[in-house]
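Let us practice reading a record.
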Amino acid sequence: MERVFVGLGSNLGDGTAILAAAWRRIGEEADIVTVALSHPYSTAPVGMDSPHRFTNAVGELRTSLTPRQLLDVLMKIETLFGRTRREGAQGYEDRTLDLDMLYYGERTMDDPDFVLPHPRIAERLFVLRPLAEICPEMWSSTHLRTVRELEESLVEQMVQGGIPLQDVVRRSWT
């Protein structure tokens, strides 16, 4: 069973309820065991313009599925929760559910439509903060740092003004 980390996000509807239900649904799939789920985080959009805040979380699971098989399962669950992808859409769009595979064990992939580890982990506090909550000492062989060190480095860059501040606030599931 491979150790996998998945980013969960929603900015349409009741994000907290959607993420909690999606996580339960992931755990109902054959060959997937859910292990841990971070707190939800309320976050301002990053890399897109939207009036809607996101709810984000990160979950840890174990699976015997291949990365492609797991991707197919995650996309199927997104669709079950009302996620639509417009043909020819440019950039990011508002969504009811987004499930991103962040890490799949130590596996790396660089296909045109699927990259592992997720290529923007180190740039996104809404990923690093919940990931550091559930697995702070995990080593990122891609970045040669622990997840906690990646989070601290990103915060330092924001404080020093090198990159824009990212608004990320921890919430509770209730």
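A brief commentary: Residues 2-170 form a domain with the Alpha-Beta Plaits fold (CATH 3.30.70.560).
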